[in-house]
Specification:
By secondary structure, this protein is mainly beta. It has four helices and 46 strands. A hairpin with a 6-residue loop joins β27 and β28. The chain is elongated, with a radius of gyration of 40 Å. The relative contact order is 0.07.
């Protein structure tokens, strides 16, 4: 295929627009011809539109015109100046990279001693994103400027100056640090010698707004590295890593190896730190606050940590990171350096690979670091035995009160909590059937602190302890027994009615059993301790057909002549309206029948609803409780045995509300002319 174009270059700016259009047309044509372009590397129309826009220059960009002296020096032959004696020569490496608009950019080097430019003709570029490197033998101690020009006025050349022999940095600047003209000065010499980290803890919060000398910067032309308020975690400044424009990024990386492929090195920003361990006690550790952001695609934002060039995993086992959303929160990253603390100096590298600069779109492709520290983590252990009345308690839960660590005792009551930072701790211990207890302990560096814990059994108060009564035939007796748990652990109880021996039949009928409700320290009502009353096969008792005398609300089923289907997840749900309750209540009692079969222990639904003014309103709370049926000995319509259920729920203090009761199987809730359901609270 042969394509010919005939263009007239009558206007430079118009020419650039036409060229851009032709490039876009060619790209579209190649896509159709090849038919192999996949969606994985495509970009959105919004991103395509923004890529055509120019990046605004830095708010602190140089805006002064080229000095007249330098304009006059252009094109003149450079004469090596006399420095008045023998002076050392420094091999200076000057690397400059241009943005997408290479035709607008040029540069030269001004020698202050000579009062002239080194090159008689300004240097230019031949392609977008091109990097040119010059190694010059310059007089040590003399001053020079790298002068950059842009004919459009939005900058375009970024650069890094280093000593070619030592590799130490001298100066650097970004492509948006000037408008039409920028002068970036340096003094020829060995460069800034890195400062090793030799004193611990090493802490850096960046509050001076300056990157410390211990952090040696390496920044590609398509990246940025600076302190910024936006990178701070509840402070003034943090360390910001970012990309630049799309120039040099290439295809979207969908893997760690692709993100850090050398082809993307212009978009790498890094700080290197040389760490020299000093043998202090503890585990050498690195920790910092960290968050990332991204523009169009989270695969535009990557971050990693290296030790001597090898990936380093954090405490969670990750060795590279990406943002999850546009609003991630700061998290603390922790790294164990103990494997390197006895082997001499080593180098830590914090490195980003990001496409766009901060706020290019959304957050841009960025990584923020704050509150950086390298320190020796001083640790110790808690060990101990949990006992009750001198006997070991197995499978007891022992934990830190802040919830960060929980362990369980073994068969001998032994527990251990290892590698805790030095300091004071609040702990708790608990096991079902014992009182909950809290203790305090102190971790000392390198010491196993013995912390034994005693669990006491719950204390039950029963009043009266027993009831002995003589009844005449058909006589009804109602008595109440108070069962109080004055501890803070679960307390289980059973109750029996003992009849005089009248025959060979058993003289014991079990009324029921269950855990007594308790209040557990710090957690409120213990939802796991649900009171259940009952058992099946009780002799007919009219008392079971009446609401308790101390009920705050009652709608007795006496006189009920019908029942309505109320089944959990079934077709119908029945409600009882409750009015005028003046105290806290925790128990719901209700009656119902089954059309066939004998009910068994099963889950029952109890729902508490707002008063909707004639109907049930929005749900306040709901409970699914395993309840035993209690046979009342009464029947409905001469055929259907009536049963009672009692459920204990969280404390409620509503005055006017509605209650719904449902069984898992097909229960029919008794009703009477005075209500839509029969219950008491």
């Amino acid at each position: 295929m042969t394509i010919q174009f005939l263009l007239t270059n009558t206007n430079h700016r118009r020419m650039k627009r036409i060229t851009t259009l032709l490039m876009l047309m060619l790209f579209m044509a190649s896509t159709v011809l090849m038919g192999q372009v996949t969606t994985t590397n495509t970009i959105s129309s919004k991103e395509m539109q923004m890529m055509k826009q120019r990046r605004a220059v830095s708010p602190n960009a140089q805006t002064l015109p080229t000095p007249a002296e330098r304009l006059a020096a252009k094109g003149k032959t450079f004469v090596v100046p006399s420095t008045g004696g023998s002076r050392a020569i420094s091999n200076i490496n000057i690397a400059v990279t241009v943005d997408s608009y290479f035709g607008e950019a040029s540069y030269n080097i001004w020698d202050y001693d000579a009062g002239a430019y080194i090159w008689g003709t300004d240097e230019t570029f031949s392609s977008s994103g091109e990097t040119k490197v010059h190694v010059l033998a310059l007089t040590e101690g003399s001053m020079y400027d790298v002068d950059c020009w842009d004919t459009y006025g939005d900058g375009g050349i970024g650069g890094v100056v280093t000593n070619d022999d030592t590799g130490w940095p001298i100066t650097s600047w970004g492509s948006t640090d000037y408008t039409s003209y920028g002068a970036f000065g340096f003094t020829a010499g060995p460069g800034i010698m890195p400062v090793d980290i030799t004193t611990f803890p090493f802490e850096e919060d960046f509050e001076t707004g300056i990157i410390p000398d211990e952090m040696v910067q390496t920044v590609g032309s398509g990246a940025g590295l600076r302190t910024a308020s936006s990178a701070a975690n509840n402070s003034a400044y943090g360390l910001l890593f970012e990309g630049n424009t799309s120039s040099g990024w290439g295809s979207t990386p969908y893997s760690y190896s692709a993100a850090y492929d050398p082809s993307k090195s212009t978009h790498f920003a890094a700080v290197d730190m040389t760490v020299v361990p000093d043998g202090s006690p503890g585990l050498l550790t690195m920790r910092y606050d960290f968050v990332q952001g991204y523009s169009f695609n989270y695969n535009y934002s990557w971050f990693r940590v290296l030790i001597d060039g090898n990936p380093l995993m954090d405490a969670d086992g990750n060795y590279w990171w990406q943002p999850a959303t546009h609003s991630d929160d700061f998290v603390q990253k922790s790294f164990d350096l103990s494997a390197y603390q006895n082997g001499g100096a080593f180098t830590i590298t914090l490195q980003s690979s990001c496409k766009y600069y901060e706020n290019y779109y959304q957050q841009g492709d960025v990584a923020f670091i704050d509150n950086f520290e390298i320190f020796y983590l001083e640790i110790g252990d808690f060990v101990g035995i949990v006992t009750s009345q001198g006997a070991p308690v197995d499978n007891a839960e022992v934990g830190l009160l802040d919830g960060s660590l929980t362990v369980h005792t073994d068969a001998n009551g032994y527990y251990e909590m290892l590698n805790l930072e030095t300091g004071d701790y609040d702990l708790y211990a608990f096991k079902d059937g014992y009182n909950y207890v809290e203790v305090t302990g102190t971790i000392v560096t390198g010491v196993q602190t013995q912390l034994d814990i005693n669990l006491s059994p719950p204390i039950m108060v029963i009043n009266p302890l027993f009831i002995q009564e003589t009844l005449n035939p058909e006589e009804v007796l109602t008595k109440y027994i108070g069962i109080q748990n004055v501890g803070n652990g679960d307390l289980y109880w059973t109750a029996e009615v003992v009849y005089p021996v009248m025959s060979n039949n058993s003289n014991v009928t079990n009324l029921g059993s269950g855990p007594a409700p308790v209040y557990t320290t710090g957690t409120g009502f213990d939802r796991g301790a649900i009171s259940e009353t009952g058992g099946r096969g009780v002799e007919s008792d009219r008392d079971l057909f009446e609401c308790n005398a101390d009920a705050l609300f009652g709608n007795s089923p006496v006189g009920a002549d019908n029942a309505y289907w109320s089944q959990y997840n079934g077709t119908y749900q029945q409600y009882q309206q409750v009015n005028g309750v003046s105290d806290t209540w925790t128990t719901v009692t209700y009656w119902g029948v089954f059309l066939s079969g004998t009910p068994v222990t099963e889950d029952h639904f109890i729902g508490v609803y707002q008063d909707g003014g004639g109907s049930a309103g929005p749900l306040i709370a709901s409970y699914l409780l395993p309840l035993d049926p209690i046979a009342t000995g009464e029947v409905l319509l001469g055929s259907y045995p009536i049963y009672q259920w009692i459920g204990t729920i969280d404390p409620h203090s509503e005055t006017d509300f509605w209650v719904s009761c449902q069984a898992t199987s097909q229960m029919y809730w008794l009703t009477s002319p005075t209500g839509s359901g029969n219950s008491s609270a």
